[in-house]
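Shipment paperwork, digital attachment
Item: protein structure file
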Amino acid sequence: MIKHRGFPGRLPGTDYQFTLRRENKKGATPLVARERFADRRPPDRKADAGFVEALWLYFGDAPFVRGNLDAGRLSWLLGREVIALGDPFDPEDYDAMLQLDVARARASFPEAFDGSGHWDGSA
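Attachment content:
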């Protein structure tokens, strides 16, 4: 499992996890596109925005390996702001390739692109 050094481990001041510490010996938790509803709690929305911001600052619009990125956090964005690359895509592979759909992410989370620094402890 590739570890993305320098990627934030969590949203500062919260328990919203962004990365894993170690590989699961039973295999990677499958990525599953989760439905986001309009009535999601503000802290959950802030965690999503912080994660999108971290993805943008760390990877930009380049493809990236799933590696140690948290499956739960990725699943909230999968199929919308984060797109799966590769055919066939293996949702249980730590080496699966993903990419941030910048236009869609900007539309869904404009605050992640305004430079306010959600994931670095400011805001």
